[in-house]
């Protein structure tokens, strides 16, 4: 037997194994195999995972508590401090930032002015002890980085001296938490209402669809303006947070409920459903154990696609003053300062959270589109 024949036989065997693996693969494995072929979706997934982990571990990654106003009174509205390794004074193996000093003079009408002292270096240190924080139910004081003297602000500070880097990471976590609660509430309502409507049909379907259409036609902005007027001013930030999350969930379920209903209308007369009915299975058992699992992948895709809209809703409401407010750190709260003319002209680093907001929404969109194409078994034939 020649070497060419052996090589051809080995390739044929590998090809046969691939075919067997394809025909014996589960739906989840097939979706993952198609998803990996999409470069934009994989990049979006990597960015999304990075942002989610940054939000979860924000207390450790950020050097300071973002809720304390006047954290750095000596550096209010301060520009970003980028660590350096060398300057005109020489090279350093340790990254450093310069010291900022506040002075008054006749030239500035005795107003406080921050000046850079390039001869005084403050060296970056890792794992310093700082503000206490709670993570996974435990209290820590160790942060990822800091400086040996004073403070460091790699994204600059706002008008109250709060660190924008710390606020941005915590804002990502808050916006994701609002989206998660809203999506969970919408998910449960959609499965219940869409499942009952699609399985029973008839007058029950008509009544539930009237309710669904009524909820879909409610304008969001006037609704939240009325809710903002209703919310007592003495409510805590946590109470406002959960209230906004619940409201977003209660107005975000109709689209998914429609899709669940459509699928159940086509599947309720299948043989496996009739067999379950003849065996005496209840309607709730058939919906929960047979009908809904038959399109689990599509439900997951809808959930992922719903996330950016929840985040966008929270950000838009907080931006116009109808959602979360200080001292809660969310992307919408941080974007409120961007619309000020003084910020546009003098403090452009306020726009840094906008970049993270865009990356978060776009990564959700790319991952959702990738999952939608991967869950469609006919997506490859359409290209």
- Taking the alpha carbons of the first and last residues, their distance comes to 42 Å
SS-derived structural category: alpha+beta
- Averaging pLDDT over every residue, what do you get? 80
* CATH class wording of the largest domain: Mainly Alpha
- Count of alpha and pi helical runs: 15
**What amount of the residues lies in strands?**
5-15%
What is the overall silhouette?
elongated
What's the arrangement of strands in the largest beta sheet? 1-2-3-6
Largest β-sheet summary:
4 strands, antiparallel
Unreliable segments of 5+ consecutive residues: none
CATH architecture of the largest domain: Orthogonal Bundle
Order of helices and strands: HHHHEEEEEEHHHHHHHHHHH
The oligomeric state is single chain
Report on the architecture of this protein:
The chain is α+β, with helices and mostly antiparallel strands and 383 residues long. It folds into 2 domains: 81-152, no CATH class; 167-377, Orthogonal Bundle (MetI-like fold), CATH 1.10.3720. It is built from 15 helices and 6 strands. It has a 4-stranded antiparallel beta sheet with strand order 1-2-3-6, with no helix packed on it. Strands 4-5 form a two-stranded antiparallel sheet. α6 (202-216) runs antiparallel to α9 (254-267) and α10 packs antiparallel against α11 (283-291). The protein starts with a helix and ends in an 8-residue tail after the last helix.
